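W.,

You were right to be curious about this one. When I first looked at the sequence I had no strong expectations either way, so I just let the prediction run and decided to look at it fresh. Below is the sequence, 237 residues in total, followed by the output.
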Amino acid sequence: MHALDNVIWNALTTRQAPFALGDKRARRFVSEVGPLSGLEGADDGGYDFLAALLADKDTAAVFLDSPYKSHSQFDWIAGAPLVQMVCENGLTSASHPNPNAEIIELGSCDSPEMIALTALTKPGPFGARTHELGHYLGIRQDGKLVAMAGERLKVPGYTEVSAVCTHPDYLGRGYAAALMTEIMRGIRERGETPFLHARGDNARAIALYERLGFLTRKIGYFAVLRKANGTTQRRAV
C-alpha cells in the first residue's frame, strides 16, 4: 500500500500515533485536534470499532475510496468527492505578498484566532490543538489574522499542506500562494513531499494548487458522520 492510500489511518498508526485514540481496527485524533478518523478497513467491523470510540452525537470525518454506505451506528451529515494532490517536482511559481504583509509564525497563543478564521472560511476541521500537528504560518493586517496555512496529516515521506484560508475581505492578494510556498519549502527541506486534499467542487482552490505544481493523484470521498444515540462507547486505548 502506498503511504497516501488510507492516509488518515496511516498517519494515526505511524508519525502521528501520539495524537491517536483507538486500536487495530479504528483510530481517531484526540478530540481537541479534530474529528479526522481512520479505519483499517471501511467495512461493518471497522465502523463498529469507530463507533465504540465515540460518545452519542460525536462526529467523525473519514476519507474513503468510494461513497459512504449507510451504517446503523452513524447518521450521515455531509460528504463530497475529495481530490488528493501531490507536488513531486519541487517547483512553485507563487507570487509574494506586498511588503506590508509579513509572513509570521503561528503558535498556541494564536489558536483562538486560527479557530475563528477557519470557522469563517471552512477549509476543513480545525480544533484547539490542531496547530500542534505541524508548522503554521499566517499574515496579519490591521492587527488581525487574515490568512494562514500549515501542516496536518503526516505519513512516512509526506506531509499534508492544510488549513489554507484567507478572510473574504483579503482575497485576491496572493496570500494563500505565498503561505503555501513557505510551508512547502519547509516540507521539502526535511526531505519530504507535500500533498493536500481539496473538495472536488472547489475549482478555485484546485486551480491554485495546480499553479503551485500539484497534480491529482486520486479521487476519493469524504464523509462526516455523527454517532447515533443509544450505541455503546468503550474506553479508548
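Here's what jumped out at me. Residues 232-237 have pLDDT under 50 and may be disordered. And, maybe more interesting for your project: The longest helix spans residues 175-189.

Coffee later to discuss?

I.
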